[in-house]
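Render this sequence as a predicted structure.
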Amino acid sequence: MGIKVEKRLPFGFKGEWGKVYKLYTYTEVASNVIEWQRSSYADIGDDVQFKYIEDGVDKTTDITQPIMNLPTKSEYRLVKTTDAYFNVETSNYECVVGINDIVKIFGCWWVVEKIEERSIFTPSKQTFYYCGLKKIFDKIVIK
């Protein structure tokens, strides 16, 4: 279940290290398995660094929403990461987290709802991955 995470930290990127859990099939060998909504997820085996986009209330991509409909800090967060892995099939680097993965950061459990990729540094081809996380309020069972 382990994914080889390439730590690609640009100058000034300071975030929090978190755990990433991917959907688990019982044919795989894994430790640190959790259960959420009748599905099992396994720890990928590497910590991944995340950073909040900003403090307080996150802005949504749809700026036409009234202020009362903006998601609050406790329910939905936008974070960024630079950590990636090399996908042999596509011969490209891809974000370590994927849609519907479970992430444990900032002392809470989150599910990844969306991922957006943006290249920031042209010379080094550094890529930031922007992830939309929704807080999990259900019980997570640690196996």
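Summary. Strands lie at 16-23, 33-36, 39-52, 76-81, 84-87, 92-95, 102-105, 108-121, 126-135, 141-142. The CA atoms of residues 36 and 140 lie 5 Å apart.
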